Amino acid sequence: MVPRSCYRHPLPLAGLTAPKGIGQADDIRSVSSMYRQPNRPIFCSIGGSGSVTVSQTAVGLERLSSSKRGRALQNHTGVSMGDYGLHRLGWSNVQVVRKISLMASGQAGAALLAATIFAATLSVLGQIGVWFWPALTALVLIRYGYLNTRGLKPVLSSYKIRKHGWRLVLDEAHIGVGFLAACFVFDWPTGLWVMTAYFAANLAAQFCLMNFSRFVIHHLAECDRTDGQIKTAVQQALIVGSGARAKKVADMVLNSPELDTRLIGFLDFHRKGLWRYRDVPLVGHPDSLREVIANTQVDAIFWAVEADDISRSEVLAVAENMGVRVVVMPSVYDPKLARIRPSYVNGMPAMVYRSDPEDQVALMGKSLMDRLGALFGLLVLSPIMLVTALAIKLTSRGPVFFKQTRSGVNGKQFALYKFRTMCCDAEGRKDDLLEKNEMSGPVFKIKRDPRVTRVGRFLRKYSIDEVPQFMNVLRGEMSLVGPRPPLPSEVSRFEPWQHRKLSVKPGLTCLWQINGRNAIDFEEWMRLDLQYIDNWSLWLDAKIIAKTFPAVMKGSGS
Length: 558
What we know:
Strand 9 (about 340-345) and strand 10 (about 350-355) form a beta hairpin. About 45% of the residues lie in helices and about 15% in strands. It is α/β, with parallel strands linked by helices. The chain has 18 helices and 14 strands. The strands form four sheets. An eight-stranded mixed beta sheet has the order 5-6-4-3-7-8-10-9, sandwiched between helices. A two-stranded antiparallel sheet has the order 1-2.
């Protein structure tokens, strides 16, 4: 039987050269390509030379029931049914239940519970009046603002689940003082007995929620131990090191499902071959970090090497230069671009080197401005969108909208929407036009591109083709202002310093758009994006938006 560790390898790393004894890079790519097709079961074996070979089999798995098929596949290969075809198990439904459970256990559930207790208290005491809804809104906003801005900014975003009684009492005391101050300022008729009854009932309910949260976390962690890591986690992280400190970090992440984080693997100076800890594999040497970041989504790197290995590698310099957060204890590195900030990982103290913006209040303002601005833009420009759709449909064959995969924060891919401005076979004709590329670097641009339709040329000149991207902004994949999202093929050809543009959310407009667009070369484009990241503020966003309108109207640099 093939060892269980044979090829349960994180697939985003499929393009890397395999460690000695695991096989060649081409073998891993072949596994990756077949692995993504759930109707083609994969079996692997270790040949006499020690290399891994992959073959398909016709064992009639499709004729079995889903449960028997899963057991048969796992018995032969060690690959779980979840890895074979998540959609066949209704995995999306499982994930919905999981997310709802975590949301109910965290800040969202606490706010809903507090609002319900407040309404129930006033109803029982007969105190509900016209002031109830403003007071309820104020209570929710005070809770949200306090719980999102108190303390240090966490390294990994989580569902903000409270686990300690002293923390709960302190939080509720601060929120209660804020709410009493709001009642006093707005002269809401909340008497002493009403507020006392509410605070007592709410505190008891929050303690019950805290105990329920502990049960949910324990249950989900047990499920993860049975089924492996979270397969649809929002965040992904690497651990540099494989000793006691590295294992402690891995335990912390694997035992904390509320972090919604998947461990890609370990990078280690000494270990080679097939090795794993709690189903998290060894994926290579720390010197391969540049290739790992370039080929997969990495949201954080945990530096957990032993003391003797601290000076052996340039891991920290590579990660900083490519815009990826590094979590280090203690401070052992002098950064040139990143800012050092104290933080925590699920209660563990940490020092974070960040080269992206981190002002929580300003970032909350930017997020609010993005959503409201996108909604306003769609409403105002809806007549133009309707006319554009009709013009595209009447003048050329093909769909109205063009969907393209782009790279977002830390390389996470998403579907970007535009109005179609080219003929239907544009992608197939691209190879024939590569020699006419007028841009330096990995970007492909031609001023007189023969694939662009007559209507498309007009749409591009005035950036009307970009209007559907307001939907991407509403979905949280993009921002109104930020570096333009590149193609994954372009990202793979970035220089390490250029990769840092992916450390922030991409946007509809940025310094590139108001400084000539295609009239400037790729190197200057990248420098403008990094200049925006290093100097970001809400005021800078406002100035860029104000300058975008005249630049679009002139159609310069299109």
